[in-house]
Amino acid sequence: MDVKTLCLGVLKLGDATGYEIKKQFEEGPFAYFNQAGFGSIYPALNALLNDGMVTCRDERQQGRPDKKVYRLTAAGEAALTAALHGRPALDKLRSDTIFMLFFAEMLDETHLRATYDGYLSYFRSCFEHVRSLDNTGITPGRLFVRDLGAEFYETMATYLAEHRERFFAELDAHQKAESTAKTGTGMGTGR
Amino acid sequence: MDVKTLCLGVLKLGDATGYEIKKQFEEGPFAYFNQAGFGSIYPALNALLNDGMVTCRDERQQGRPDKKVYRLTAAGEAALTAALHGRPALDKLRSDTIFMLFFAEMLDETHLRATYDGYLSYFRSCFEHVRSLDNTGITPGRLFVRDLGAEFYETMATYLAEHRERFFAELDAHQKAESTAKTGTGMGTGR
DNA sequence: TTATAATATATTGGTTCGATATATCTAAAG
DNA sequence: CTTTAGATATATCGAACCAATATATTATAA
């Protein structure tokens, strides 16, 4: 799914500006599962406009800068449908945090704890957010994705909370065993 | 975490060729959480070599093409440590499948079921794979990441398996309600 | 004998990301 | 009351990245 298709998907939910599309990937229903920045969205919208997949109308506003509101065309909806019927690529995740936790032994404890706790509170707030949403009148597909997300956030938060103390304890034990092995006798004065 | 840092991380586990580094992102301990292709890895290794972060030795082999085996230097390890002490970026996931499930109403049932079942068996095989690994002698960080992964895979597989029938039933009901609403009386002959 | 898969390196073109620039208004802090 | 910060809004540039492809050899399977 390239950014053009993602934009078509957002516009399927209703007319939007580039700015509003970006917000959908930050706070809206696509958050966490898909994302795109301005540097991809604005060129994508121009290309879609050029190909007749969307229309654009200018809207002047009181005070705030002018908007360009985009709307899906029939051709755009057809293109979205076609893209949705292709083979999905495998999920692609890039997690700096998990990369850091993998190398936990190389981190100083302050940084490690801050990273760990930041990850935990991130998933907690994701879960709280999804739980706070109103599910009435939502389509089955959107509801399913929302519930799957909630399940995922909760699992991560719970796991991180429950394994916190054990993880740090095991790291500590491992660190001590390492330094003991280095000094040889276990009676070393350190360094 | 750019690809250069990811390569340093892989090389921290032991000497490797570009080809072997790629495999680490496909089957190895970094699978699912991080990934990189040849188009990023080979240029990254050249840059790291240029900056003295790695050394490279040529190895001729019987039959197979020659290898270039890379090894982390002290400077490389220092750079890795520094990168691990930065602020982690938020997780970035791109899931075509979840995007498709979100728009389930727009998909024909065959495609939807194939996509759903493909996703389920993907997580099942991920879980089986992690479960089959030997955990003896592993560092606490690696073990933690492995267990977190297993928990995640299992959660996804279980959720998808348990909600399968209900999801398709609700979609069906929704589809019928839609077509009834369109024809107005509920006695429409279709079209 | 032919095709497929695995090992191994490398490049190219297109896509995408992060940072930055510009501009206006609102709300909060001083 | 004035400055600062934050939200709204569009846009672009260069760097980074990815998917596909090219090349070459060997082993295995059909």
Written account of the structure:
The structure is a homodimer of 191-residue chains. Chain A has 191 residues and is mainly α. Helix content of chain A is 62%, strand content 8%. Chain A has 7 helices and 3 strands. A two-stranded antiparallel ribbon of chain A has the order 1-2. In chain A, α2 (18-26) packs across α3 and α6 (109-132) runs antiparallel to α7. The longest helix of chain A has 44 residues, at 140-183. At the A-B interface, α1, α4, β3, α5 and α6 of A face α1, α4, β3, α5 and α6 of B. β3 (92-94) of chain A pairs antiparallel with β3 of chain B. Chain A binds a DNA duplex (30 and 30 nucleotides) through residues 2-3, 17-20, 36-40, 42-43, 61-68.
Quick description:
Two copies of one chain form a homodimer. With 191 residues, chain A is mostly helical.
User: Roughly how much helix do the residues of chain A carry, as a percent range?
Assistant: 55-70%
What pattern of helices and strands is seen along the backbone of chain A?
Answer: HHHEEHEHHH
The pLDDT mean of chain A sits at 92
For the secondary structure, the number of strands of chain A is: 3
Distance between the termini of chain A: 53 Å
Rg from Cα of chain A: 24 Å
Approximate shape of chain A: elongated
What does the largest sheet of chain A look like?
A: 2 strands, antiparallel
The parts of chain A where pLDDT drops under 50 for at least 5 residues are 186-191
Biggest interface pair, counts: A-B, 60 and 60 residues
Strand order of the largest sheet of chain A: 1-2
Q: Specify the structural class of chain A.
A: mainly alpha
Oligomer: homodimer
Total number of helices of chain A: 7
Indicate the proportion of strand residues of chain A. Answer: 5-15%
